């Protein structure tokens, strides 16, 4: 299977930890994986597209990515995971993608695939989950 991992064009430049773990999962299954940032063409036609989402206020790059990849790959399964997708699955689904809610203990236990970000000089980890703010 060919899996395209998509990090929307966010303001942050930290590597997408969830996608790096998803890459490790798929590569262990023998799948071919490629990571793109923003709306960029894939090197091949993917069998699945996985898009990450950050906080709810950063929804616009997620929607742009969904619409771009839906237009270029109309019959490919698009899954969106992360905070925004978990909290607002109906908005993700209204754009034509499947919302993947919550966390995955199986993925959380994997070591991230840092080969996708060779320029990154450090390791990334979660120090905590969730947000300290009590937003409505």
Which properties best describe this structure?
single chain; 136 residues; alpha/beta; 5 helices; 5 strands; globular
Report on the architecture of this protein.
Helix content is about 30%, strand content about 20%. By secondary structure, it is an alpha/beta fold. It has a single domain, classed as Cobalamin-binding domain (Rossmann fold). The chain has a five-stranded parallel β-sheet, sandwiched between helices. The termini are far apart. About 30% of the residues are buried. The mean pLDDT is about 90.
What would you give as the CATH superfamily? Cobalamin-binding domain
Shape: globular
The secondary structure category is: alpha/beta
CA radius of gyration is 14 Å
The tally of structural domains comes to 1
Number of DSSP helical runs: 5
The secondary-structure element order is EHEEHEHHEH
Strand order of the largest sheet: 2-1-3-4-5
Assign the CATH class: Alpha Beta
**Reported CATH architecture:** 3-Layer(aba) Sandwich
Proportion of residues in extended strands: 15-25%
Average pLDDT, all residues: 90
Give the termini distance in whole angstroms: 40 Å
